Amino acid sequence: MTLEELVPCDSTKMQAVSEAVERVLVAAQRQDRLTVGVYESAKLMNVDPDSVVLCVLATDEEDEGDIALQIHFTLIQAFCCDNDIHILRVSGMQRLAAILGEPEPAAEPRDLHCLLVTNPHTDAWKSHGLAEVADYCAESRDRNQWVPFVCLQER
């Protein structure tokens, strides 16, 4: 049984949170507050965990069998829980790639499995979408779902 089977992807709440996640990721990328990649994310969390406000772990069905990726996810999730970083699992890697845009043709493909949204140590960057995602994460934790799940919908 997959996570997608346990959590319905078509609810109104899920769609609203999915749209909020998309807005947060686009805004963070535009403002250079997005770290992309498992290893890059681990490096940032080791150096400056207080700047991280959201961790997005992305997989699709074909990634479920990747043991190394699942081990990385487990370690990242534990670190996020220890450091009070909101964490979210998402499916829809193609939608994620579309949201963030394709890299330069000569560049290596990006590892979109782990994304970190950072916040400066000032109150200059306020985001309604980030507040909505944070509320969803908090509500999920209240229901003992420590790593909430969101489906990114193709458009």
Describe this entry's structure for a reader.
The protein has 155 residues and is of the alpha/beta class. It is built from six helices and five strands. Strands 1-4-2-3-5 form a five-stranded mixed β-sheet, with helices on both faces. The protein is globular and about 45 Å long.
Q: Main attributes?
A:
5 strands, globular, disordered N terminus, alpha/beta
Share of β-strand residues: 15-25%
Radius of gyration: 15 Å
Number of helices: 6
Regions with little confidence, pLDDT below 50 for 5+ residues: 1-6
Distance N to C terminus: 26 Å
Q: Helix amount, in percent?
A: 40-55%
The major β-sheet equals: 5 strands, mixed
Based on secondary structure, the structural category is alpha/beta
Question: How are the elements arranged and paired?
Answer:
Layout lengths: L2 H4 L5 H19 L3 E3 L1 H10 L4 E7 L8 H16 L3 E6 L1 H8 L13 E5 L9 H15 L6 E3 L4
In short:
The chain has 155 residues and is an alpha/beta fold. It has helices spanning 3-6, 12-30, 38-47, 67-82, 93-100, 128-142; strands at residues 34-36, 52-58, 86-91, 114-118, 149-151.
